[in-house]
Fold:
Amino acid sequence: MSSNTVRGGTMSSRKLRWAGVRNRSHLAVRVLTIGLFVGVCVLFAAMSPIFLMPSNLLNIVRQTALLAIMSFGMVSVIIVTHGEADMSVGGITGLSAAVAVVLLVRGAPTALSILAAIATGLAAGLLNGILVTKVGLLPFLATLATMNMAMGLEQVLTKGTYVPFADPFIGFVANENFLGVPASAFLLLLVYLAFYSLLDHMPTGRKIYAIGGNLQAARASGIDVAKYTVLTFALSGLSCGLAGVLLVGRLSGLTPLAAAPLLLDVLLAGYISSILSSVGAPSVSGALFGAMLVGVLSNGLAVIRVPTFYVNLVKGLLIIIVVAANALQRRRRSIS
Amino acid sequence: MHTGAENRPIVALRRPLLKWTFVAEYGTLAAFVTMCLVLSAIAPGFLTFDNILTILRQISVLGIISLGMTLVMASGGIDLSIGEALDAGALVSISLIAAGFGAVPSILGGLAGGLVIGAINGLLVAGFGVMPFLATLGVHSMVMSLEMVYTRGGLPIYPYGGVPASFNFLGRGFIGPVPFPVVALAACLLLFYLMLHRLTLGRYVYAVGENPEASRLSGVNVRLVTFGSYVIASVIAAFAGIILASRVSSGQPLAGEPYLLDSIAAVFMGRTVSREGKASILGSLVGAAFLGTVMNGMTLLNVVFYMQTFIKGALLLGVLALASYARTRRT
Structure:
């Protein structure tokens, strides 16, 4: 029996080592999570005829694409920091969107605006990475400060009001169908494949999991911890830059701070990925599922006409349940 | 010829211009003093008795909340729902006033509101072992949503027939020439200083923050200390909320939100003041004063509102980055 063959089948050794366990945990939590997903779908479908309409399902995909793309970056940060998060995702997405929309309004070509938005996201992500590795700030603090500054700049750029701009190409990618499927789904698939192959199948991903699993051991075995930590924060910034472009398409312009509430959704998606894994290790595929769950919840609650105020209540409750389940899962494992 | 210069160690020749040890220990204080000096030179009306009293009054609510945040962070956690605890204090007490209760039961009710939020946080973190920032983020989101439901989408609560004078005193009263909120800040400061830096309790809090496992093995009730720090932090935040409600004679929903980041910032700035880089009561006071003075100065200088957030963030990051860098360079 090879070292990564465990009860219940094989699993990549990088995730087992990240979680610091040899055995898989009980199936119950995972079954419950997937059951929750199926359950809310059935509930929404029973309560509203709109929910299962093809047009609404496609709408869910469009809404989820933005969220999922941000979640992939978030999950990389969660992995490398062993559970800490990038608090600046909402801020960076908003700032990137503001850069894109301001350039578009001034008459810059679409391609240039998109590139500028992505570059802004990347730069903000690099700043996070440098603050964490070179300056030595805690990830939570560094990203919180970046979030604040990004939100400030976003409001300066948009002068605090809605900036309308309907770019045909960005609008197409964000809102239209291509071959009968939302165009953003193709973008989502591309980004997913890139993150999935990087983190689950390439040496870089193995090193990122290794740093999160045991920092000292990773350093001792010669992994350039700073380099890969900066890389994950940069990836998170990059995905936020891309999400910012999609946001401009979704809103046909930009409402300042429209991206701020996404932080909770992205955190939720990232941590759901963790309880979905049999050993409690976060993963890109889990984040995709988490984003889908959050997307379905947001859409379904709106479709069955739950007031917006209650939506945050549900999400807040969910994040507590998810993380508490994860904590209990770990505690049980460490006893057995 | 023997001058002695050859015997000097090479290190001395490359002595840096700036002593990092000095920067690490006094950098934040020096930055604060410099900023005050610059502001007194360029901002009209900065260095007047009235304005200093205004700054003190402005930082009193932030200062009181920062004390609670200091306690939680010293115990190794963080409380992202502290703004909602403030709101709970404000909204519950004002609602009770509106329902015709007197000042004392309303204040106690407000404090109880904070207590409930703190107990939920404490239960999640100490009981279930949930990561502090996620547990309190969930509570933050839930309580905020409940607030919106309770206030029908964010309508402020104005008690019919006004607010009794005894309740009003908390936010608007004076003791001698000093506003009551400033007196309250000083009293809370003393209380927390004694608790955290002079009593065994404080030693336990720091021990739990440093190494929970070692504390548990040496007989500290880690869960109780953790639970207690969240409860105390929320109650003190609710107290700050009551002062705020009394000052504006109404309950403003979501009034606590901006205080969250400022209190975290104050504690982190305060950590750069202490020699070991720990969260400390006096450090957090310096942090709160720093932030309050920056905001006051920018208002006096007519800086655009949106730019103020950015400048505050950048300044904070600058101080933290410098202190953190200096600490790594210190021998």
